[in-house]
Amino acid sequence: GYDVKVETQGGMGIENELSEDEIAEADVVILAIAIGIEGVERFEEKEDAGLIISLNPAEVVRDPAAIIDRAENLVK
Fold first, then answer.
1. What is the pLDDT of residue 55?
2. Which of 1, 54, 67, 73 has the most crowded CB, counting CB atoms within 10 A?
3. What is the pTM of this model?
4. Cα–Cα distance measured from residue 41 to residue 27, given in angstroms and rounded to the nearest whole number
5. Pairing of the two strands 29-32 and 52-55
6. Phi, psi at residue 18, to the nearest 5°?
7. Are β-strands 29-32 and 8-10 bridged in parallel, bridged antiparallel, or unpaired?
């Protein structure tokens, strides 16, 4: 029941890049990053609003349901 878009960044550059409109329309942004990312400033407004969950990718793999619960709690 969720609409999700996943942007990836790696050796091949940015793939499936999130637009400013997509970021603005998102209820929550989950940043699962192990190192710095390119264009992090695009997420400043969501960060200021407390609507970003920033964590290590291993945390998402280990317990994705807990991350979704955290995201749901941010928008309640």
1. 96
2. 67
3. 0.91
4. 17
5. parallel
6. -75, 130
7. unpaired
